[in-house]
C-alpha cells in the first residue's frame, strides 16, 4: 500500500516534469543567465574552496555555465554519479567530456574519488523538483540525495537549484526527506 504523502508526491512530480518539459526555450535561456548569476553570487558570498554540484539534464535549470565559472576560478567541484545500490559516487569536474550513469544522468568522465570526499566540500548544490518555504526538498523519487545528506555528520550549507515557480508553500513529507538550507532560483537566493 502506498502512503498518502508518497502518492501526493508522485502526482506533484508528474505535474512538475510536464511543466519543465513544456517550458519555452526563450524562458529557459533567460533563466540560465539569471541562475548562473545567482549561483556565482552565492558561491562568492560563502567562499568555499570546494563544492558539490551536478550536471543538469535538458529539463533542469542549467548548471554548466556556473560550472564553467568554477573552473575559471580554480574551485574544486565534485559531481555525483548514481550507483546501482541507490548511493552516490563522486568525481571531480574537469570541464571535459560527459557520460551517463546507471540511471541515464549526465556525469563527468573523470576518475571517481572516495565517496567520503563529499564530507570535505564547503557547499552542496542539489537538484530538486520543488522546495517548500520551510526548506523541505522534494527530489525526483530515487532518494540519492536524501541518503547522502542524511548520512553526513557535518553538513555544509545545502542549496537546491530550482526554477522560480518551484518554490512552493508546502510539500508532502516522508520521514526520510532531507531539508535544505536554501534555494537558488533565477530570481534570487532564499535561505531558510
TrEMBL record:
Which top-level enzyme class is recorded in the Swiss-Prot or TrEMBL entry?
A: ligase
**Gene Ontology biological-process annotations:** folic acid-containing compound biosynthetic process; tetrahydrofolate interconversion
Enzyme Commission code: 6.3.3.2
Query: Which InterPro entries does the record match to this protein?
Result: FTHF_cligase, FTHF_cligase-like_sf, NagB/RpiA_transferase-like
**Binding annotation for ATP:** 9-13
**Cofactor(s) recorded in Swiss-Prot or TrEMBL:** Mg(2+)
Q: Which Pfam families match?
A: 5-FTHF_cyc-lig
Q: Does the keyword DNA damage apply?
A: no
The UniProt GO MF terms for this protein read: 5-formyltetrahydrofolate cyclo-ligase activity; ATP binding; metal ion binding
Which keywords label this protein? ATP-binding, Ligase, Magnesium, Metal-binding, Nucleotide-binding
What the entry lists under NCBIfam families is as follows: MTHFS_bact
**Family assignment from sequence similarity:** Belongs to the 5-formyltetrahydrofolate cyclo-ligase family.
PANTHER family given in the database record = 5-FORMYLTETRAHYDROFOLATE CYCLO-LIGASE, ATPASE INHIBITOR/5-FORMYLTETRAHYDROFOLATE CYCLO-LIGASE
UniProt name for this protein: 5-formyltetrahydrofolate cyclo-ligase
Species this chain originates from: Microcella pacifica
Amino acid at each position: 500500500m502506498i502512503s498518502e504523502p508518497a502518492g501526493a508526491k508522485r502526482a506533484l512530480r508528474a505535474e512538475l516534469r510536464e511543466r519543465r518539459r513544456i517550458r519555452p526555450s526563450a524562458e529557459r535561456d533567460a533563466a540560465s543567465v539569471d541562475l548562473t548569476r545567482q549561483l556565482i553570487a552565492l558561491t562568492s558570498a560563502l567562499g568555499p574552496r570546494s563544492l558539490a554540484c551536478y550536471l543538469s539534464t535538458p529539463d533542469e535549470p542549467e548548471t554548466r555555465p556556473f560550472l564553467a565559472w568554477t573552473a575559471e576560478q580554480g574551485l574544486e567541484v565534485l559531481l555525483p554519479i548514481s550507483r546501482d545500490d541507490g548511493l552516490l559516487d563522486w568525481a571531480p569536474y574537469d570541464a571535459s567530456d560527459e557520460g551517463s550513469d546507471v540511471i541515464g544522468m549526465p556525469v563527468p568522465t573523470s576518475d571517481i574519488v572516495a565517496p567520503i570526499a563529499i564530507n570535505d566540500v564547503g557547499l552542496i548544490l542539489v537538484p530538486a523538483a520543488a522546495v517548500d518555504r520551510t526548506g523541505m526538498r522534494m527530489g525526483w523519487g530515487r532518494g540519492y540525495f536524501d541518503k547522502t545528506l542524511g548520512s553526513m555528520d557535518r553538513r555544509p550549507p545545502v542549496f537546491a537549484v530550482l526554477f522560480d515557480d518551484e518554490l512552493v508553500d508546502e510539500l508532502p513529507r516522508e520521514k526520510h526527506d532531507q531539508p535544505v538550507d536554501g534555494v537558488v532560483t533565477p530570481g534570487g537566493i532564499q535561505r531558510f
